[in-house]
Amino acid sequence: MARAARRAAEAAITLALVTLVVFALASTLPAGDDEDEHERALPPPYRAAVRAQFHLDDPWHVRYVRWLGDLSRGDLGISLREKRPVAAILRERLPVSLALNALALAAIVLVALPLGIAGAWRPASRSDRALGLATTALYAVPVFWAALLLQWVFAVRLRWLPLFGFAGAAHLVLPVVCLTYGGLAYVSRFVRTSLVEGTTGEGGRVARARGVGPVRFLLFHGLPQSAIPLLTLAGFLVPRLVGGALLVEEIFGIPGLGSLMFQSVLARDLPVVLALTLLSGAVTLAAMTGADLVAAWVDPRSRRVA
Fold first, then answer.
1. What does the H/E/C string look like for 15-77?
2. Domain spans of the chain?
3. pLDDT tens digits for 142-182?
4. What pTM does this model have?
5. Which CATH number, 1.10.3720.10, 1.10.10.10, 3.30.1490.20, 2.60.20.10, labels domain 95-304?
């Protein structure tokens, strides 16, 4: 309980610092209403009323304290771009991003584990080296380049899949591939390395001396030995998916939180940017803290660390 409370306190402080930095940096940019040509053409009294409504003329630290007070009451503010509650906008976009990231995470786990086991089956063999080269090459490919290439091949040339938009399962195939390939490459090599290290130690030698077969040895000895490193790695996959979704959703026209962040930053829509920063930071910290606590519960020896 003490460890969980300490991790929760650290996460809360980190999240508060992140929102403070984002608020301070965003406040140095022109306000969202100044960036819109339509509003620049409005009469000065109306513009003054808008600035007064959103307290745009107050010092940034005063507005930050006011935002924290509103947040404590569950009020995320009003979007400067859409002129409606930020919470309502998030409720519309959140299910799309959840579906996209859940599919990507499931694909990473379902494909990376067999690839990692295949690499650990015969370490340093020709097939293992080929698999390592292929996964390293995948990991090095930029997301935006892969997205444009996939669109050109499968949507423009072959016409097998939609180019962009969100109207059904087919529209999620290419975005999920873009979110998956980098994490898949990294996780598969991580699984392979963990299995090789776990099976070449003293426990591995004892198991082989007892006549344990190679398949059973990898599945029932190697994988449990790799459980804690994999749990830790799973916590770090979440921020990678959240960050990758920003570009992927915008390129493929997916109406999720990633594209909302991209559009809100361009429009200087500070209330939406802050809400999305808070949400993504909370999800990231919760995943990393949860992975740490589960690892400590699975292996009590790790509780003595930190």
1. HHHHHHHHHHHHHCCCCHHHHCHHHHCCCHHHHHHHHHHCCCCCCHHHHHHHHHHHHHCCCCC
2. 2-72, 95-304
3. 888 999 999 999 999 999 999 888 887 889 999 999 988 87
4. 0.77
5. 1.10.3720.10
